[in-house]
């Protein structure tokens, strides 16, 4: 009997959160796509406010499961105050509470040119009728 190895690396998709549960639907779809594409990586969602789990809770759960390398990906359009002030403070606090776990953080997804290219193509497509 062979045992499958548990993932040692994780990705946490970090969003703002909202009161309306429907706001979360694209995040759940993104989570499902990444979980399918990255079977050797534990993929989780976390939110700054109004939704669960919080980032500290998600990171603690992953660390408790033996994950030692975590990459946080802010699913934000730009680097506003939450990403400049709130997120670094949250990450510093979590790093202090989770010794032995490497916690890295990517730039906001909207800062990447390939993401902006995809959004621009979508917007242009709405004019030509190729997008709903």
Explain this structure.
- This is Sirohydrochlorin cobaltochelatase cobalamin biosynthesis CbiX protein.
- InterPro entries: CbiX-like (IPR002762), Sirohydro_Cobaltochel/CbiX (IPR050963).
- This protein is of the alpha/beta class and 132 residues long.
- The chain has one domain (9-128): Rossmann fold (3-Layer(aba) Sandwich).
- Helices cover 42% and strands 18% of the residues.
- The protein has four helices and four strands, in the order E-H-E-H-E-H-E-H.
- It has a four-stranded parallel beta sheet, sandwiched between helices.
- Strand 1 (9-15), helix 1 (25-37) and strand 2 form a beta-alpha-beta unit.
- The longest helix has 17 residues, at 81-97.
- The radius of gyration is 16 Å and the shape is globular.
- The model has no long low-confidence stretch (mean pLDDT 92).
